[in-house]
Amino acid sequence: MLKSRIAAAIAGALLWVGGAMAQETIRIGANLPMSGPNAELGEIFSRAASIAVNHINADKMLSKKLELVIEDSQATPQGGVVAMNKLVSVAKVPYVLSAYTAVSKAIAPIGDRAKVVSINGGAVGPDLAELGDYFWNVIPLVNFEAEVLIPFVVKEKGLKNIVLIFVDDPLGEAVQKVLRAEVPKAGGTPAGELQVQRSTQQFASIAAKVRELKPDAVYIASFGTQENQIIKQLRDNGITQQLMSYSAMSTPSIATLPEAKGGWYTVQSADFTASALGQRVAKEYKELSGKDANAYVANYYNAVMVFGILAQQLEKAGKPITGANLLEQRRASPTFELVGGKMTFQANGTVAAPVQIREVDGTGAGKLVK
Amino acid sequence: MVFLQLFLNGLQLGAIYALTAVGFSLIFGSTKIFHVAHGSAFAISGYIYWWLASQLDVAWPVATLAAVLAAAAFGLLMERFIYRPIQRHEASFFTVFIAAFGVSLVIQNLIGSVAGRGMETVTTPLSRSVEIMDGLFVAPISAISIGVAILVFTALSYFLGRTHVGIAMRALSENPDLVRVFGLDPGRVAQWAFVIGSAVVVPGAIFTAMTAGLNPAIGTHVMLVSLAATIVGGIGSVRGAACGGMLLGLAENLAYWKLDPQWSEAVTFVVLFAFIIFRPSGFFGTPTAAR
Q1: Which of A37, A200, A208 shows the shortest C-beta gap to B5?
Q2: What 8-state DSSP symbol labels residue B287?
Q3: Residue B134: helix, strand or coil by DSSP?
Q4: Does B121 touch chain A (CB under 8 A)?
Q5: In the 8-state DSSP scheme, what is residue A247?
Q6: Which of A203, A277, B33, B132 is the most exposed place for a label (fewest CB within 10 A)?
Q7: How far from the centroid of its chain's Cα atoms is residue B104's Cα?
Q8: Cβ(A45)–Cβ(A121) under 8 Å?
């Protein structure tokens, strides 16, 4: 009897403490790859988000302290769903940062059902624009990137025969679809498509297949460690043709990979020097990570800042910070002044931003090509 | 020519797989411990080599020696502080598995925290292929990895067949009580198994750092390969693990000859399933009947 009374007292105390803590903070979630072969990007995303959280708290934008709850998706749909369920049902957050096309597509229905906003700053599959009202993107999707790169490669550089190496995943398949449309439209020829599994780590024989196809350029649509492995092993195994990719080629480990030098990639324009805010973020990110900030840093910083601004507006209007109210508020005021300049959400929750072509040159940011 | 290219790629990859798998098989064969943290020895030694050779420009023999010592020390510490205390309490296979799995997660995160979570490679001209015939590209590292694999297996065969410790390790797998009768300490023999089994993973780790690159999570892939090669080769057979690793490397690459690339890893598992169904004892394992 005594034991059960003590247990009840402890449980009550814990509930009270938990409740008190919950009231002291406003929580948002992050469903990011924090372990496994894609953890390099998860680290970049979470650091950028943490800087934004610190800024919101330091500038006292909200009535309570903002807290970021990070769950590990491992960049897999299964991991993402488990993490999303925890964030929605246990942490009860109204807003979740997301990444990776496959993960984003898996978690979107959960967010939609629970009226929790998911916001993506790293995945680029074009169908992420069609995941419902509660799925937002602060990154231009890959169709915008390919529309810029492919005409440049085919028309301006005369590299007409293009081989695609793509991962067996919604992202890879999305890029395949986009390139099938964009390459012929620009006057080029799809010289071949080589699909690889997500777990594949050896590409010497893929290089042999690429040599057989005799392309002028090779487009790589993978991510994380695998993107690096493909680049390195193609170069090691006699592929001298132009390599190119989407924004996944902008990661720090590819930027310093000797074999990646000369590779072209598209990425949204994120000029950190253009505003005081951009400079502040770039400086703090450099202090935190020792690396230069890239577009992903801008995206995840912006994703959290979008929440901060919307939540501030809701508090001023005396409304609770819920996913539904955040959506309503974004529709009412869709333009934000953020890192990289003014950003306006379209009705489908996506943003348009200028896309650049850059070349890997051994430095963090790469060389501007166009 | 494409077939020959794929065959040569398969030999190189098979040599690396064999070097990776043989240590796991040696440990499992001798001690019956399912050392799921074997992939961590691979990751630790690979990263030590990368750090010394690539970041500090230390000469490769010194970096290799340091990697061997690190892998051996890891194996020894695992036996002494993880497996032995668990076995003292006669814990189940599952307890051992979870403990080792937990250690491998800790190691993965430690490496990620210290060395970063991106891919790291050891840049060397040895990994750059040259065209030796029309359409046939071979990198010096291919010949080196095959040569080193032959050297390691020859040395290991000699060690297991001709030295007291090696014979004791084989005896330990058969009958630990008999080892005791001959005045040997089974615990000490098990330590040798962990030290040597972990050390032989080093060449595979170094070649991987030079060709495919390292990442903190690489141990998981290494364990899958080791386990598959051990089953194909015959559980507990060092010779079998070597042949199993080679077969898997060849199968993975030769699959590209007629199949689309996404099938290459599936072919590996088809080989594995074929062995499980038609020859569950593997190449060199001893068939056992259920009692």
Answers
A1: A208
A2: P
A3: coil
A4: yes
A5: G
A6: B132
A7: 15
A8: yes
The structure's pTM equals 0.84
Measured in residues, chain B has a length of 291
Probe site for chain A from B13, B128, B142, B215 (most A CB atoms < 10 A):
B215
| Number of compact structural domains in chain B | 1
Q: What is the ipTM of this complex?
A: 0.85
Whether residue B287 is contained in a domain is answered as no
Structure tokens at A107: 């978690």
Pick from B108, B120, B261: CB nearest A194: B261
The domains of chain A, with CATH numbers, are 2-139+274-352 (3.40.50.2300), 142-270+356-368 (3.40.50.2300)
Write down the residue that tokens 């190189």 correspond to. Answer: B12
What DSSP state is assigned to residue A232? H
Mean pLDDT of each 10-residue bin along chain A, 370 residues long: 54 50 82 90 95 96 96 94 96 96 94 96 89 93 88 95 94 92 95 92 93 96 92 95 93 90 90 88 93 90 96 96 96 92 89 88 82
**Three-class SS state of A118:** strand
Q: Taking CB atoms and an 8 Å limit, are B256 and A206 in contact across chains?
A: yes
Q: What is the pLDDT of residue B290?
A: 47
Q: Which chain A residues have a beta carbon less than 8 Å from that of B126?
A: none
Strand, helix or coil for residue B175:
coil
pLDDT of residue A13: 54
Q: Is B108 a member of any domain? A: yes
With tokens 């259920």, the residue in question is: B290
| Residue range of the domain that includes B98 | 2-278
Continuous H helices in chain A: 2-24, 39-58, 77-85, 101-114, 142-151, 170-185, 204-213, 224-236, 252-255, 276-289, 295-316, 323-332
| Domain contains B285 | no
User: Which residues lie below 8 Å from residue A369, measured CB to CB, with a gap of 6+?
Assistant: A152, A264, A356, A357, A358, A359
In a domain, B197, yes or no: yes
Q: Which amino acid is at A214?
A: K
Q: What is the mean pLDDT of residues B15-30?
A: 92
